[in-house]
Request: fold
Amino acid sequence: MKAYRCWAEIDLGALERNLGRIRAALPPHMQYVAVVKADAYGHGMPRMVARLMQSGASMFAVANVYEGAELREVGRGWPILVLGPILPEEERYLAEYDLTATISTPEEVDRLSAAAARANTILPVHLKIDTGMGRLGVWHEDAASLYEKVMAAAGLKLAGIFTHFSSADTDPAFTSEQRNRFLHALETLPDLDTSKLLIHADNSAGLESLSPDSPFNAVRIGLLQFGCLPYPDSFLAELKPEPVLSFHTRVGITKSLPAGTSISYGQTFQLTRDSRLGVLTAGYGDGIPTTASNRAQVIIRGHRCPVLGRVTMDQTIVDLTDCPEAQAGDRVTLIGHQGDECIEVQEFSQWAMCIPWEAFCSITKRVPRLYRTSREQ
Ligand SMILES: *Cc1c(COP(=O)(O)O)cnc(C)c1O
Reply:
């Protein structure tokens, strides 16, 4: 049997419970758009989507038409929103895979309308309004003219209107300003009938639509459904999200070296005592970023052990001096529980000087994803 040198365990039961808890906290009419771009944040899109379909997602969002096409193979009929821009060569995939495009500019209205005519179909679109993200979307003060152009375009059917927050995790005042700009922009749209449209703004960090007074009828959730809070101490901790992914490797060898020896490329660490080391069978080629060099910890036999020196492509060196029972072959936890210890993705990403979204996306394709289904404890 093949041994795993570095792997991620994905808990489908935890995913389902997370979705259940988020849904239960949302007003009943609220549509749940499950954001599964970038291979469902590295968790493996097809398996995540299949489970989300069974557990109450209303709709899916992906980054581009190729992710949309892959998702379409998992289920016919589910609405799929493409969040990113559609390149000219990609327009035909919208009709082919029954995808909903995001529109930000008049030029896109013309192009997609022509693509609809060529495919002899009607393409659903969501209009995106830029309320301060400065990325996609029509600037909120100019929303009305683009809205009228979409409504007048042969071949396009407006299915939703949305905006995106830039700082929901760090700046509630600016987020509230963005909400107001969005609501005000909606008021400027002539003859707007919101009963037939999805109106959405909230991501995980800005999940104010838990309130029954939410002016929106859909939310777009990525990170939270994978059991990670968008920032430490978020009020969303009340929902008790459970981590879906854990990340593991093995001890390849153990050995002892004298005080004063330098460790790994660039000699960035010198042993301050005679030490016992473990060389792990994973490195940045698997998703342990080099920024975690000399900073991260791992769990072996239930003890935290520090990373020494630079993380290399295929191997990482840790200090086992205070964990004398550790041996070659031991399981090493990079993210997740082992014994009484736990490393959450938040902590891992602080060591790696990145954000949790990025830590998930950094787990490379060399790393097999192993699926299992836990029951509620
Ligand atoms: C990625 C993304 C989301 C999901 O954000 P989370 O913080 O992971 O919940 C929502 N909306 C848009 C436009 C996105 O790009």
Observations:
- The chain has a mean pLDDT of 97.
